[in-house]
Amino acid sequence: MKEVDLETRTTKEGRVETLVICAIEKDGRIVKELTLAFPDQSKASTFVNCVTLFSLALRRKQD
Known about the structure:
alpha+beta, three-stranded antiparallel sheet
């Protein structure tokens, strides 16, 4: 995982949701992208924290 972005938007129905966009880069190009929608920003932030910790753990295991 190279990059994680958080975006807040309002749906057509008037609900506010937070998008988490995870991107994987290879040779400077994005090769995979995952977009998840969460009903509130605290849940999105919790998910980002978990994914970040998991990614760090994988990197340390490879060293």
